[in-house]
Amino acid sequence: MKGFGFLFDTDSKFGKAMGKIYLIVITNILFIAFSLPIVTIGASYTALCHVMLKTLRSQREVRPLEEFWEGFKSNFKQATIAWLIAVALLVFGYLDMFWSSQIGGLSLYLQLPIATMMCMIIVLLFYLFPTIAAFQNNVLNLVKNAIYFIMIKPWISLAIVCCNIIPLALLILDQVNQPTYVFGFFFFGFSLITMISMNLISKTFYSKHVTVE
Hints:
The chain is an all-alpha fold.
């Protein structure tokens, strides 16, 4: 009988599982804390993507606190610029749809292209922040690269959108189980979803057949 020594062995299956749980919980709490100023949500999500991509590619144990701060600090400027521009465009699109609904008539036909544009921006964000986390470049080229990644494997893009949107939709719409969803999102929801998304994205990012600017 080996006793309970395996509980303290980081190389055991149990130790690796606990290390993964620790990483998910810690980075989830860090993401929420660093997102509270609102304007830093882009940089915070980029830092979360940085940790998860590092975890997938590193052969050694990743230190979540250090890696999150490194990802936040090194990508703060680009991620914040991208986030603020995207929010401005989404707010502008929402106001356009509101005004067209109030005016009525032919202006109602503008709602479909505006809604389509807003959906495209949201899809782009799911790729843009991971792209910022993975590659060094100016914001314009990073946007181009994100669009490129979306286009070469659109089915992965669809899977990533579903992974992110469906849990959030359930959080908002399922009022009966809302406390459970809130608990899950506070402790592990954002990190777990991001880990799954980065696992899908990394197959595109680091493919031998993919080149970026």
